[in-house]
Design a protein that fits this description.
77% of the residues lie in helices and 4% in strands. By secondary structure, the protein is mainly α. Strands 2-1-3 form a 3-stranded antiparallel β-sheet, with no helix packed on it.
Length: 276
């Protein structure tokens, strides 16, 4: 059943997803073409345009899927969706799984497009040939992997997917909770209002997580890269902006919030559906 629903989601949303993908690819291609010219101002503009195409691709897809999620689940099409003889949480699971696939493919596309733009801008922005830039990028990655193989191979990709996935989960939760009876009269304003509320709560939870876990990623006393103890609260109160480490407390905070939001959204699908 999930496979059938997943296939339906892919067929139903492929039109606007391919349109967004084409727009992102087009912006990145035009940006790369302008950047490779080396002309003043125009090449810099090309770099900016390429960055918009590369890094705007996935957020645009996620936002479009979130709007479609609300329209197909709670808008006019929602009457058909909610009348299907399928438990609401299963429909939600298929939508979430399809969005997850889009997120993974979108991250890969973003990295590929940005690499193309960087190579095109190599001479103008970095003063080196494209081949030399690729070689330098490879050396940096090899050095990073040698210093922290677990982080480069697992930590960074997992955290990147977690951050993008969290956005999707929060969009869906806002759409479902904002469409329940207590906010039904606000129409699309309900999901928007709930999203702002969830965003504020998420920021507080992540801040608490950062302060509660007194560790970060940085250079240890032995010169290796790894976990470094730090009094983050003390540094914040003392305004020590030069603290050279990356806090990691936000990661466990998101790991806790994601399943809670998924559970609450599934519960909403099963028990609190309210259509306008």
């Amino acid at each position: 059943m999930i496979g059938t629903l997943l296939k339906h989601e892919a067929i139903r949303t492929r039109g606007f997803l391919l349109t967004i993908a084409g727009a992102g690819l087009g912006l990145a291609a035009v940006g790369a073409a302008l950047a490779v010219t080396g002309w003043p101002v125009l090449s810099q503009f090309g770099l900016v345009l390429g960055a918009i195409g590369a890094f705007g691709l996935l957020p645009a897809m996620q936002l479009a899927l979130a709007i479609d999620y609300w329209r197909s689940g709670y808008g006019r099409v929602g009457y058909f969706t909610q009348s299907l003889p399928i438990r609401g949480s299963r429909i939600y699971g298929a939508k979430l799984a399809w969005t997850g696939i889009v997120v993974v493919l979108g991250v890969l596309a973003t990295l590929a497009l940005w690499l193309v733009v960087m190579v095109a801008s190599a001479q103008t922005m970095f003063g080196m040939a494209p081949g030399a830039l690729l070689e330098q990028i490879g050396e940096v990655l090899r050095a990073a992997y040698a210093a922290a193989p677990w982080l480069v191979a697992l930590g960074v990709p997992a955290t990147l997917l977690l951050l993008y996935g969290f956005n999707t989960v929060m969009y869906d939760a806002a759409a479902s909770l904002g469409s329940e009876r207590w906010l039904q009269r606000l129409s699309w304003g309900g999901p928007v209002l709930v999203w702002f509320g969830l965003y504020a709560i998420a920021q507080v939870v992540m801040l608490v997580g950062i302060l509660a876990i007194p560790f970060g990623l940085g250079v240890t006393a032995t010169g290796d890269f790894g976990f470094v103890p730090a009094d983050l609260l003390g540094a914040m109160l003392a305004d020590q902006s030069e603290l050279q480490l990356m806090p990691i407390g936000f990661v466990p905070a998101i790991i806790v919030m994601v399943p809670l939001l998924i559970w609450r959204t599934a519960y909403s699908w099963n028990h609190k559906v309210a259509l306008a």
